[in-house]
Specification:
Elements: H1 14-31, H2 36-42, H3 47-54, H4 62-71, H5 77-90, H6 105-116, E1 117-124, H7 135-145, H8 151-164, E2 175-181, H9 182-186, H10 192-205, E3 211-216, E4 230-235, E5 243-247, E6 252-255, H11 258-274, H12 281-292
Parallel strand pairs: 1-2, 2-3
Antiparallel strand pairs: 1-4, 4-5, 5-6
Helix pairs in contact: 1-5, 2-3, 4-5, 7-8, 10-12
Length: 295
């Protein structure tokens, strides 16, 4: 069994640590032929609690993990110590915890997954992807949804979005592959000057090795993802499945079933084919910037 440390760098946030620990506990349980019901009884809980633990959707009590390891026959101190350390790390709050006053709980899960992803593939139809937004553009987007909020709250929300972007600049950043509808790039969020700055920043971002942007032109007509924006997250650890994230106005959907993943993976591949090739993105953005020039 591959052991995962609780100190693997910036990507090892609490969300992914829970997922990794849950996956390892599931493998141990299955290798011993222990049912979820029996495991739940061992920790004075239920079968559904074991299921949630193995999916990484709840926190871990160190005592529960220790009791399960004993049940599964894990007696070696080194192995037990590594898994218990992982459990402690999984309960630590992520950096976004300090933004709890402006951060809905359903989005906190996404931030943990985003920080842990090795590959982020997204389709955007309305806005420039959040990881590539300028501060001015982000402020204009925030004001669209929170126009009655105080200036301090607006600042907090914008700061949160800027803090998210640090994931692209760390030592081992994820790869970001964004397919953006032309409408999102033509819509003058914040006005022409803000949009010009955003397009220039996007152009600069496409020159970095871990960012790829494709544009779906108006001429493409209907396409594979007419239903709306979505993101597919892939992780470096083979024990973690891909996850599809679909954001709604007041909630989000997380999909990890094989049939759902296959459906969205096919849709994403079709989008990449229907979009202009990545090598044309700079030319497209430069033309859009020129169109904003009043001269």
């Amino acid at each position: 069994m591959t052991m995962v440390s609780a100190e693997e760098g910036p990507a090892a946030g609490p969300t992914v640590l829970r997922m990794l620990l849950g996956a390892q506990l599931r493998r141990l349980r299955e290798s011993r032929g222990v049912t979820r019901e029996k495991a739940g009884w061992e920790i004075r809980s239920s079968e559904s609690k074991i299921s949630r633990m193995e999916l990484g959707r709840v926190g871990f009590k160190e005592r529960d993990v220790a009791d399960l390891l004993t049940l599964y026959g894990v007696t070696a101190e080194q192995e037990r110590g590594a898994l218990l350390k992982l459990a402690r790390g999984a309960n630590n709050p992520g950096w976004w915890h300090r933004y709890g006053d402006v951060l809905p709980s359903w989005f906190q899960s996404y931030l943990g997954l985003e920080a842990a992803a090795a590959l982020i593939r997204s389709y955007e139809v309305q806005f420039v992807p959040g990881l590539l937004q300028t501060r001015e553009y982000a402020r204009a987007v925030v004001l669209l949804g929170h126009g009655q909020a105080s200036p301090a709250e607006i600042d907090r929300r914008v700061d949160l979005r800027m803090r998210r972007q640090e994931v692209l600049h760390r030592a081992k950043p994820p790869r970001l592959w964004a397919v953006v509808d032309e409408a999102a790039l033509r819509r003058p969020i914040g006005g022409p000057q803000v949009m010009r700055g955003q397009l220039e920043a996007l152009l600069k971002a496409t020159r970095t090795p871990n960012v790829r942007v494709q544009v779906i032109p108006f001429a493409a007509g209907g396409h594979a993802a007419a239903g709306g924006a979505f993101t597919i997250l892939r992780f470096g650890d083979q024990d973690l499945p891909d996850i599809v994230y679909i954001e709604q106005l007041t909630s989000a959907i997380y999909l990890d079933k094989r049939e759902d993943l296959d459906f969205y993976a096919v849709a994403m591949e079709r989008l990449c084919v229907e979009a202009e090739p990545p090598e044309r993105t700079a030319e497209i953005l430069e033309r859009m910037i020129a169109d904003l020039d009043p001269g």
